[in-house]
Design goal:
about 900 residues; elongated; 9-stranded mixed sheet; alpha/beta
């Protein structure tokens, strides 16, 4: 279905005349508006009588409503007051009435659809409003027509529609149904399709019906037809209407009331909030209504062409290829059709071992294609492409073996605009047109157990027993999701900048799980958009025993990053059990051995880089890498291994200055060919740095902590930035590795990553470089704690830079106590250098920390950061160690 063009947006707040006595609050996590009967009736009829910018959807909240739309439910957030339908959720159900009374200390009436429908039809008769009925059986509708002929002869009925379920689950058929309703000029549409189908259908197709008001009154058709009797007044007055309906329809309602009801009631009691919600008609910032504004980006210069990478675009498409010469043509052909409605640029990072894919891409002159110089994996390829993608409102990560249906990108952008989503994912279709179950739930022990036992069988099992979402209903309607396969992800520009690089430790598999979790932890949401359709070949990564083993290992890697030790052990045991029961199938034997023995992990597929390509085809840069090391036997080998490609250049001298070492650091460093090892008597970092400077002969110089892993590309780019330009100092980009850390530590570093000041300086990465002129300004390293902090202050903003490189890996402390010790040392060193400047820096950091708060999760992270900062700064000069003492965190080694 071709969707209308979306331009950049401006916010417009819709208006509705809401009753003065209305009050909004959350019940079970679902927004509910508390109103009197007359107020609700007047609001609904007034909206049906007047032209408005968008239709009004009306539904009633009971326990079944909370089960479907409350906190943690599949459809949570779909009925928020954003376009294209404005929702009025009324209070229904005795438990909700009681909870509202507890929270507001006043009585509120039940406003069930079955109570409202009679007075609404009376008003429609009086005002000449046209009423349509959607839902129920044809037989039930025939009974209503007979009753209306006698009881409501003046009521104008615009039409009757009793669609099959197959119509409601089909996009094209539902669109034709909505068009048929629109042709009838219906003012009020009574929708009785059952919860949650009726609300979901209204949310997606309501605006296409032309109706001003759509009533999601599920059982009304049966009540109006007389097929089901209303409960006696005394039954309703005592809150027993559920028992009455259960008695009349035990087969249909037993599961709802007896199985689902208790959980919904628990949600009601635990997830309700008396804090008033924005007034009806007000739109939250994250879900504001949008209308097109004037275009701000450069349009495509010719039909079907992409804009240059240096131009800002609506969408930057990022593709990672590996032997995809046959796939990129169909992908780009589909993308070119999308340029009629928006500006698009395309960047491809090619991991292929030969030049066939690059040769095919060279036929498309408006596509930016770069070889990665090896096989960086999916995460590494995305990072490489993102570094040159430039400015865009959103970034669309696509597998190369996808075909994009016309209008898909526009539909995803519309969902992002309407819902305030950080990430939007489409429907993925297999070649035969069947929907691939691409939606996923957050991994956990019980879900891993369910998948280990049942695999893809018993697809109707509860969500807490499966990571994959097999329910066909989930793929028919827009809703929030935990994560989805990484074949197609539309990421907002703000989110891409806030979350940062993809974690390259995963290579293939679980990288999207990790990225989507980081999106959620940053306060962003992820939505599924059913109107966006893409066809997926599924097989771009191939299949082999090693890849099967890597998939299992990366699930454990992911759990290692986020789960505490006890749950990690249980999760690993469940993954192992799942591989053991499938050992007869190819690859699962290797996977079981890999899960048991971490030594096997190094033999699994991982990122590889070719030296010449990494250098962009030019000569390698010259310079020196200086590594001070004091008792670093546990980590020095890992650091030197990361420099393996640099040794082969023959243009960079690598010096390890072992100072005061009493372990095997010198012996381990001496085993690396091309490394010069210095023996320094004093256990002093400044002494080690100065000793290495005295023997080094090349410039520029990269000073690298002994526990930091740095890529060959990062070394090359940093050295070149100082050799070729006016910069005096620089450092590479870096990322925090918090795997195995406590939740407090992870929370601290999430907040730290959102503070711009922490990303601008030369400090914090464990790596910085100086040109010869920059070092002349420094002279010798002083005997101070925090050499990177000291060096950073020597240079103005125009004299130093953070170079966009493959990030170096900074392993954080794993425990709160270790983090606190590191912070005390850091703040002590800062104060040691300049107490006045440190105070100004703390003030600036506090302002930036407060501005980084975007929601409850980021607020918690900011509070944790502030608490550690205060504790770390407490009496920073008391008990100060000698400046020559070597201090470090041991928990991450």
């Amino acid at each position: 279905m071709l969707l209308p063009k979306i331009a950049p947006y401006r916010t417009v707040l819709p208006h509705r005349g809401t009753a003065v006595n209305a009050r909004s609050l959350l019940l079970g996590g679902a927004p509910v508006e508390l109103m009197g009967f007359e107020d609700a009736l007047r609001d609904i009829v007034d909206r049906a009588s007047a032209d408005g910018a968008k239709p009004l959807g009306v539904c009633s909240a009971n326990l079944d409503h909370l089960r479907h739309f409350g906190a943690g439910s599949r459809w949570a957030g779909t009925l928020n007051p954003h376009v294209p339908v404005e929702w009025l959720t009324l209070l229904d159900g005795a438990p909700l009435v009681a909870q509202a009374r507890r929270l507001t200390h006043r009585d509120w009436p039940r406003l069930a659809g079955s109570d409202l429908i009679g007075p609404l039809l009376d008003q429609a008769e009086q005002r000449g409003l046209r009423v349509g009925f959607l839902g129920g059986s044809s037989a039930a509708q025939a009974l209503i027509r007979e009753r209306f002929a006698v009881e409501r002869p003046s009521l104008v009925v615009a039409g009757w529609w009793a669609p099959e379920r197959s119509v409601l689950s089909d996009v094209d058929a539902s669109s034709r149904l909505a068009a048929d309703i629109a042709a009838s000029r219906t003012d009020i549409l009574v929708v009785g399709l059952g919860k949650p189908r009726q609300e979901l259908w209204i949310a997606e197709y309501g605006p296409l019906t032309g109706a001003r008001v759509l009533l999601a009154f599920g059982a009304v058709v049966d009540f109006l037809s007389g097929r089901i009797r209303r409960a006696p007044a005394w039954v309703s007055a005592h809150g027993l209407e559920w028992a009455w309906r259960l008695m009349l329809e035990p087969t249909r309602l037993a599961h709802r009331y007896l199985v689902d009801g208790p959980g919904a009631y628990l949600k009601l009691r635990m997830r309700s909030d008396a804090t008033p919600l924005p007034a009806a008609g007000a739109v939250p910032n994250a879900a504001a209504a949008f209308v097109p504004a004037d275009p701000e980006h450069e349009p495509s210069r010719a039909p079907g062409s992409f804009v240059p990478v240096e131009s800002a675009a609506d969408v930057a498409v990022v593709v990672v290829t590996y032997n995809n010469a046959d796939d990129v043509g169909p992908l780009l052909a589909g993308l070119r059709k999308e340029t009629a409605a928006q500006s698009i640029k395309v960047v491809v990072a090619d991991n292929s071992p030969d030049d066939r894919t690059m040769l095919e891409l060279s036929r498309h002159r408006d596509v930016v294609a770069v070889p990665t110089g090896g096989n960086l994996g999916y995460a590494g390829g995305i990072n490489a492409a993102m570094r040159i993608a430039g400015a865009a409102d959103a970034y669309l990560v696509l597998n190369p073996d996808l075909r994009v249906d016309e209008g898909a990108i526009l539909a995803m952008r519309r969902r992002m605009a309407e819902s305030g989503a950080a990430v939007v994912v489409p429907v993925l279709l297999d070649n035969d047109g069947t929907v691939y179950p691409s939606l996923r739930r957050e991994p956990g022990v019980l879900r891993a157990l369910g998948d280990a036992v049942f695999g893809s069988r018993v697809q109707g099992r509860p969500g807490w027993l499966s990571e994959m979402d097999y329910d066909p209903e989930s793929y028919r309607h827009a809703h929030l999701v935990d994560w989805a396969t990484g074949a197609a992800l539309l990421i907002s520009g703000d989110t891409a900048r806030a979350v940062g690089d993809w974690d390259e430790q995963f290579f293939l598999y679980s990288e999207e799980t990790d990225y989507c979790r980081r999106v959620r932890e940053s306060g962003g949401s992820m939505w599924f958009e059913p109107l966006a359709r893409m066809w997926h070949e599924r097989g771009g990564s191939g299949s082999s025993p090693q890849l099967t083993a890597l998939m299992a290992v990366n699930r454990v890697r992911y759990a290692s990053k986020y789960l505490p030790p006890a749950r990690l052990g249980a999760f690993t045991a469940v993954v192992l059990a799942g591989e053991l029961v499938r050992m007869g199938k190819p690859g699962h034997r290797e996977a079981a051995f890999a899960v048991v023995s971490r030594r096997r992990w190094e033999g699994l597929p991982h990122a590889t880089r070719a030296t010449t390509a990494a250098l962009g085809g030019g000569p390698p840069p010259a310079g020196a890498v200086i590594i001070p090391a004091h008792n670093e036997a546990a980590v020095i080998g890992r650091t030197l291994e990361s420099l393996g490609g640099v040794f082969g250049w023959g243009t960079v001298e690598v010096i390890v200055a072992c100072n005061g070492c009493t372990d095997e650091t010198e012996d381990i460093a001496s085993t690396f060919h091309g490394v010069r090892v210095l023996h320094v008597e004093a256990a002093s970092k400044s002494a080690a740095l100065n000793a290495a400077d005295q023997v080094a002969g090349l410039w520029p110089r990269l000073y690298l902590d002994a526990d930091i892993e740095v890529s060959m590309e990062a070394v090359a780019e940093v050295l070149r930035s100082l050799a070729e330009g006016p910069l005096l100092a620089a450092r590479p980009a870096f990322r925090y590795d918090t795997s195995g850390a406590s939740w407090l530590v992870r929370s601290y570093y999430r907040a730290r990553g959102r503070v711009p000041a922490n990303a601008r300086g030369l400090w914090g990465a464990g790596a910085y470089a100086l040109s010869r002129a920059g070092h002349d300004r420094l002279g010798e390293f002083p005997a101070l704690t925090g050499d990177d902090y000291y060096v950073d202050r020597l240079f103005s903003g125009s004299e130093k830079a953070v170079v966009a490189t493959v990030p170096v890996v900074v392993r954080t402390p794993r425990t709160a106590a270790s983090l606190l010790a590191v912070l005390r040392r850091t703040y002590r060193g800062n104060a040691q250098q300049d107490e006045r400047f440190a105070g100004q820096s703390a003030s600036r950091t506090l302002r930036e920390l407060l501005s980084s708060v975007r929601g409850p999760l980021t607020a918690v992270d900011a509070a944790v950061y502030a608490a550690f900062a205060v504790a770390g700064r407490r009496r920073p000069l008391v008990g100060r160690r000698p400046a020559t003492a070597w201090e470090r965190d041991e928990s991450s080694r």
